[in-house]
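=== Structure Prediction Worksheet ===
Name of assembly: unnamed complex
Input type: mixed (protein and possibly other molecules)
Chain count: two
Listed entries:
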Amino acid sequence: MNIFYYSSPQTFYPLAGRLAPVFGVIAALLTMAGLYVGFFVAPTDAQQGEVYRIIFIHVPAAVMSMFIYLLMAFWSAVGLVFGTRLSFMMAQALAPTGALFCAIALWSGSLWGRPTWGTYWVWDARLTSQLLLQFLYFGFIALTHAIEDPRRADKAGAIIALVGAVNVPIIYFSVQWWNTLHQGSSFMASSSNVAPAIESAMLLMMLASWAYAVAISLTRVRGIMLQRERHADWAMARIARAGGET
Amino acid sequence: MSWHSVGEFLAMGGFAPFVWGAYGVTFVLIAAEVWLLFRQSRELVYRLWRLQQLEIKPTSIKPASKADMESSA
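=== Predicted Assembly ===
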């Protein structure tokens, strides 16, 4: 099979339409499993008590916010190098979901910080660089929407995505490079003594977030494709058929 | 399992506002994104379809039947 077969909007549009609901169902099932393990199997934390259970949304959301930004940068680079329209569309379809995960990470972290650190917010390296990520998402979305010519919007967005990608390793390594109030990773350490149920719940929620992001961005990219390609034969046929059903 | 009653579960060891505040807002944001996406997709298809109707050459338009009018409403 030609791997470039699905790199054109015409062939990718129906594929995305078939895959999105599958990933949506996977996300829902994994979320239910993750929440069950997180709330009913994972033990109470000896130091923090029950408040640590925020971890099951905080860490997956934070990881996804960084991962999605890197994906956007990747698609932007592919688009700039190969001139593939679909790459830019993928970057733009991912942005709102990345921004959402970033907001969830900031919000849940703030509510976790209050009872454990005594403050909702502190300008330490981890929190500040994560806030910058939020503004990079907003900047990307605002810029790509503000420029009317799609090709110019694609390029401008791609540049923000690529330049902003420098921030992602800064977020990730901030807890090692600087003395931050935010703790380091509890899970990558070789001396990890985290309960297996806590790790399982986090993994399930991480996979759920990933499946959710796939489902949502595939659905969103379909809309972008249809709008951009509305004068192409395949899109006109789709629109005519869908319009007849409304 | 760490809970002996529903009340104890909801109390989250005294951290209810923080735990449920984090989960609640997350749920609302995700639900909002899904809802907005579906609504926008539906509206987009309808808008593009209307636009297409306007762009089709007048000669190629066949007179709409009564059934067409009703199904497009």
